[in-house]
């Protein structure tokens, strides 16, 4: 892994001050005086094979926070939709909404749940890989999953969340945002079962109209190619603590 670089030179001085938007919530104590409590949400974004899940898991463990892997929502939905309809146009909206209205999608740890059925290895199957980019690019799918993501983050309160648009779309008020990158060779070695489909999805994710994969303006870019994971997690933990203090 290489260095951690700030996208914005002023990032260390920038504080997030939006009250009532998920970062801060105000309630009254016994004295009747308003008390502000902070939800510590850490966003980790990046392309496939950049190590988001591993880093998020380790960082969450160090910070004693729960972790949410939002990509599992899309993989679970891709598994379900692949046998029903392949959404690639806006006119599929009615069918997709009907599917969501009749199925329950959830994520627990590293497992996706579809109508209570746990999906693990299935989410890395060829069946999912073939339709994942197509399903993920559909605006109706993204809107329905966005609702699920935000509801789960709000329920958790404080957590480490990893995905592809967490800091830019899902939870823009995250206390600290990271964008992971890695050399192409390293990424392909980490995802050998995906091969060229990994690159195809990256292209589609970065060029799609709705919520494209991109670096949030106030995110730290993290090169996750070579450096020791322990060292990287320690540095990221320090940055999280620094940002939390500035809020």
Automatic annotation (TrEMBL):
EC number: 2.7.4.25
Catalytic activity: dCMP + ATP = dCDP + ADP; CMP + ATP = CDP + ADP
Annotated keywords: ATP-binding, Kinase, Nucleotide-binding, Transferase
The keyword Lyase belongs to this UniProt entry's keyword annotation: no
GO molecular function: ATP binding; CMP kinase activity; dCMP kinase activity
Top-rank taxon, per record: Bacteria
Name of protein: (d)CMP kinase
